[in-house]
Amino acid sequence: MNIPSLHAPDDQALLDLAVRLATEAAALIRDIRARGFVTHTKTDDSPVTEADHAAEAHILAGLRAAAPSIPVIAEEEAAAGIKVETDRTYWLVDPLDGTREFAAGREDFTVNIGLVRDHRAVLGAVALPAYHQVYAGRVGHGAWRRDANGQHAIHTRTPPVAGLDVLASRHYADDPRLKALLAQQPVASIRNIGSAAKFIRVAEGSADLYPRLGPTMEWDTAAPQAVLEAAGGSITEFDGTPLAYGKARWRNPPFICRGAQ
Q1: Is residue 80's pLDDT more than 50?
Q2: CATH of 164-258, one of 3.40.50.2300, 3.40.190.80, 3.40.50.720, 3.90.226.10
């Protein structure tokens, strides 16, 4: 892969890099899905496929060639016990978020490439391979979607008078904590989908709320958080603290993803 090295890249150049690599990784994932693959189980009982590994290898090679001074933390390397020293700025990569969705033949899986600086997600690219969509955002500079119809700005929406459209993880569809959380709010619908696609649907204004009750990892959330916040939304812990990065073992607490207030 012939990738020019970026000399002291600015954030727009880094976002362009993330978008290109997410787009290329999405194409690799589609190709692997079309020809068939085997699903394996990692030591934490989560699934992994050839597509996870191929997408991660492509992204890591691209990031490290173009911006060698920026450390990269990636899911499959971390699962293999590879430790990377970070500085105030680093990448977080999930090459295939929603592997269960991918392996089950569903469509809501993503490629996430996010940049963290001083414990905050500042920019990110999220590809949805099955939909041929790529989303990107720089916090404070706006967010956009690229698809077959071109590139268009996206924004969160003010919740409809009829009630919130809520997205939830399939694993917590019947969790009583979700019912308790929503009991005091007008709710028009609850949909259960997988992966970081939930953040993205809130970011583009097709949903209003995504409460996450169970554990996630920082590479799951950095890129979509940047897109969501760039589009006007927010992600906070349940006490209202903004979701931050650099936590022990890269593990996130429960959080709430909101559109416009």
Answers
A1: yes
A2: 3.40.190.80
According to CATH, the superfamily of the domain at 11-153 is Fructose-1,6-Bisphosphatase, subunit A, domain 1 (3.30.540.10)
Per the prediction, the chain carries an average pLDDT of 94
Alpha helices in the chain (DSSP H): 11-35, 50-66, 75-79, 99-103, 176-182, 197-203, 218-230
Please give the sequence-ordered ranges of beta strands (E in DSSP) within 101-233, or none if there are none. Answer: 110-117, 120-128, 133-138, 142-147, 150-154, 164-168, 187-192, 209-212, 216-217
Residue 181: per-residue pLDDT: 87
| Tokens encoding 91 | 């990448």
- Map out the domains of the chain as residue ranges: 11-153, 164-258
Average pLDDT over residues 55-75: 97
- pLDDT number for residue 225: 98
If we measure between CA atoms, which residue out of 202, 29, 17 comes closest to residue 115?
17
Give the tokens for residue 26: 């999405």
Task: Give percent of the chain with pLDDT exceeding 70.
Answer: 96
Average pLDDT over residues 43-70: 95
Supply φ then ψ for residue 194, to 5 degrees: -100, 165
